[in-house]
Amino acid sequence: MYDKKLPLLSVTLCIFAAVLSSPAQAQHADNDYDYRERTRELAFDPQRFFPEGTRPWMEIIYSGDDYGFPVYSIAIQKGCTSDDTGEARRNCGNRLIARMVRAPFDGEPLRPRNRGQVLFGYLFDEGVGDDLALRDALARYQLEWLETDVSGCEPAMALLEADPVLSFFATQLTPSEGIPQLALHADKIRFVHRGSYLSETTYYGWAAPESPGEWAVQFAQSLEACWRPASSIAPWERD
Which residues pair with residue 73 across a beta bridge? Predict the structure, then answer.
């Protein structure tokens, strides 16, 4: 398994050295395949987490820095899934099934973005040039593919019940007073909530205090003790 325990400086130097090496540089220069974007699409797109193809009730995508290093993505679907068959469909209507893909890391990273930096460094070194090679490389890298029923996760339910209408999505229409907060090269959160098939609310930005982004990060953290390995097919292994 690829060594994921690298300090940020070492990761940066390794990637920089790889770019400067002529064989690797030539290999990627002759190929227009964007392994970074395809990794986001195949592995970290929450709409691929449930094979039935329905849009999730909630999506959270955490990406690092301005380069969009993939850290984790979460999708939550209400009710039954395609994995529920036979008798299982009798009692699945009230569930909130959450699934997450996360870039693994050996130990605790200095910053969340380090997960995605090491992942992209590995894929660059592998020289992936098409989807087949990318899927194979991601399988060897052993991305975390996890699942839980949110309705049985007490910390997560406490957050949902504390603000059941997600009131923080309210938008201030008048200009605020004072100097606006600045966040240079901040990690980004994309948070989508679908109240029904006719309504969708999206936040994209940094985890500013009292913002939907901050709540999304807190909600993801509240699920940490409840995850278990997912039994369904991982998104990067599906067509």
Answer: 61, 101
